[in-house]
Amino acid sequence: MSSFVVRSTYSLSALLFSSLSLAADDSVELQQVYITGGQDEISTLPGSATLIDQMSLEQFEYTDIHRVLNEVPGINILEEDGYGLRPNIGMRGSSAERSKKITIMEDGVLSGPAPYSAPAAYYFPNVSRMSAVEVFKGPSAIQYGPATVAGALNLVSRGIPFAAQGEVDAQLGSFDYRRLNAYYGEQQGNFSYLVEALNVSTTGFKDLDNGGDTGFERNDFNFKTSYDLNGEYRQHLTLKLGYADEESDETYVGLTKSDFDADPYRRYAASSLDNMQWDHSQIQLTHVFEPTLTSMVTTDVYRNEFSRDWFKLNSFSGDSSTTPSVEDVINDPTNPEYSDYYKVLTGELASSSASDNLMIGNNGRDFISQGIQSKLNMDAFVFGVSHELEVGVRLHMDEIKRNHTQQEYSMTDNGLVLVDNDASDDATKQNLGEATALAVYVKDDIQIDKSTVSLGLRAETIETSLTEGSTAIESTESVLVPGAGIFTQISETFGVLAGVHKGYVASAPGQVSDIDPEESINYELGFRLSGVHKVEVIAFANDYSNLKGTCSFNNGCSGDDLDTEVNGGEVLVIGLESNWKTEYQFQSYKLPLNVTYTYTKTDFQNSFTDKSGIFTDANGQVEEGDELPYVPAHRLNVKTGVHAEKWQLNLSALYQGEMRDKAGQGTIADADKINAYLVLDLAVNYKVKPELALYGTVDNLLGNEYTVAAQPMGYRPGKPRTLQLGVKYSF
């Protein structure tokens, strides 16, 4: 009989509860929950992972997750509102739209409103209250499903301090920007707690034709408490409660090309009622115990509720067969048949008939996401080989209730005036989507000499249903997602890695029978260099057997087509992601340097007619060899600065290359091109005394005017130059 010996190869407690020194008192530490185990663990992972820690987050005091992620290689981002309210994040060429192709978590728990039945991330946690951000790609991400095609993102909330500590962070800035973030926590014996509150608001940087705010206000309140249980086994209970809400005067309506060139920050009068209101609550109970010195079991029970009302311009009120869409008018405003409709949009002309009245819709939705998950981490020594084993299981349920309505408004000299007072008569979509998923995974990191071999397998069964009236469409799909990776330390400072895994995105409830899941085989190969210069270079290839698109208002779909999926067929995405970090010392000054570059090339491997208009114009033709829209070939971020004992100056430069608005190949036509742009951000902070710091930031230092998108209804700008000044007091 073979021998089996359990041996400790690393501290599992340290893996879960890493420590981070902070603020005024160097002896004060916070409990942090890093899935990666921290920066040291990342350096030997047989897969791609990035940790953005508290120090990096505090350099620029970003509240926009898009700007936070600029330093992550392999990321592709589609900006929308300039503030990152509803982020669009893709990885390695996956669709960035509403971040629906990546797995998003907070403290290791799914945070999306309904990750299976409606994965679009209309809710995203406030990055202001986070202490770290972790990003996983390749085989490193398969245990963090449901979406495994691209990668996973984990937001690490503020930990509970071991000693009494609090902080008040106040900030004022351009466009009546205000932010106040405060927290306090302490540990008393076996009991500890943290309370935190956040308020952030602005009147917005866009100018409505008829006046009014174009900004937002957000509130976020959180309470976290933990208790160490005495007994034979080391056990730890943590309860996290959260509530957040938002009201934002945001819109999907952009500008015509000529209007954008004249003033990119203009907004048409027809969008004056566009408004998003939502509230979100969360509860998470986490239990950790160590049955042996070399094993640990972590269990989470969670529930998230999210409710929203999304008022927005849908269309003109006339018959769709004879009345142009808003997109048609914005794309071709000089067309004599569209000129009066354009003047109604801008408020220059009052509505003259029912055909040029405006339909304002409310896509009201209620979401629930809940479940229980548990994982076992164990160190073992079997057959003379060291193993770091993780086994996990999750039972998850989520749902979305859609209650979409619309009302008719007339454009007048005094703005929009309601024509139809009974919204219930104008229901456009009412249904219930539900999903139940059981997922099990096993991951084994095997240490063989100087190599770490990682083997993983995820099995998942998903049951979905869509109920509309008396009709219910039910389906079940099961999938096995294998993955394997290897990291070999060739020398003390040089190592190589390689990996392969299956990518999978399940179908949403209610899809027709010929809609296939999104599937791919993903490969990566690269190397890491450690020491004074930390370098990581990884080549990747995602070979899709079927890439799916989802019809949404954000990409120009509306009406009965909303939330339907489309088979895009075979697509090949290849690329290179790289990162170089170093720090130079000049007398008493430090000069850090962090350079991130990503190259991405995409190709459709088949031709088809895109009736949905997701990839190109409605009824447009996608040809073999066409590139995907909204995936730039080049993305470069350089962060540098000068750090002294009491002050820091930091500069971040982002260059994003040109990209397509519609699928195509060859030279990009001007009408289909989103031009390349360069954005510089500056941050300065000064520590007046250990507990008091002053800071200032300038986003878009050069004041460049640039386009971030041209869908669904015209051109949208990036954020203009904005200045913020802040003070931070710790006690």
- Bulk shape: globular
What about the largest sheet? 22 strands, antiparallel, barrel
Count of domains: 2
Gap from first CA to last CA = 60 Å
Helix content: under 10%
Strand content: over 45%
CATH superfamily caption of the largest domain: TonB-dependent receptor, beta-barrel domain
Would you tell me the structural class of the helices and strands? mainly beta
How does CATH name the architecture of the largest domain? Beta Barrel
Let me know the average pLDDT: 91
Count of strand segments? 43
CATH topology of the largest domain: Maltoporin, Chain A
By CATH reckoning, the class of the largest domain would read: Mainly Beta
Low-confidence stretches: 1-29
Q: Rg to the nearest angstrom?
A: 26 Å
Provide a count of the helices.
7
